[in-house]
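Changelog-adjacent note: as of this version, every example in the card shows the full chain rather than a window. The one below runs 219 residues end to end.
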Amino acid sequence: MFVATRMTKHPVTISSDAKIGEADRLMKKHKFHRMIVVDNGKLVGYFSDRDIMRVSPSPATSLSKFEIRELLDKLTVRDIMQTKVITVNEDATIEEAALIMYENKVGGLPVVSEVGAVVGIITATDILKTFIEVMGLPDGKTRLTLGVDNKVGMMAELTKIFADDGINIDSIITCKQSPQKYEIVVRLDESEEELAEIKSKLQSKGIVVEHVVRIGLHA
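Full-length structure tokens:
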């Protein structure tokens, strides 16, 4: 999965000399939490709804809506935008985008081309949607959490048990718990009831079945 296939293309942008009131109305119209600022095709900054709230009058104010709008229209996007913009290349993987967001504690990234042009935006919601789709959760899967020893050949041994029973593995995720132990999450199409025999075979091989649950369709 690459950023280019999961991002929102041709994002709505705004110029740095636009009024705050205009930016506020645009964000509310499209239900945005953040916007990219572009001047003459060049990315110059970004701002969020929190930045607008920071310069807006308090909800307890006695000002009318007209007066509040008038105040906001005295400020421009340039006055509130963040100029240090963290971006991601359109050729980057989803994992890279997720790591950049995590490390920088941001909920979205402008996506740029090789020449630096803004070609899209990718958000934490896009990452979450990708994760859900990759896991096949909307279609319904049975999730097995297995505890295994960290040794060469364990994955081959594990998959052979399923293959010998004619069970197709939909996906596998490994997570290191300690230098000696791994947690493996296996997703299958079979129901919990259909897995009784395979659970017994796994345990006979020293593979601990820690948890089984049906997630998604018909759960």
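Structural remarks: The chain has a mean pLDDT of 88.
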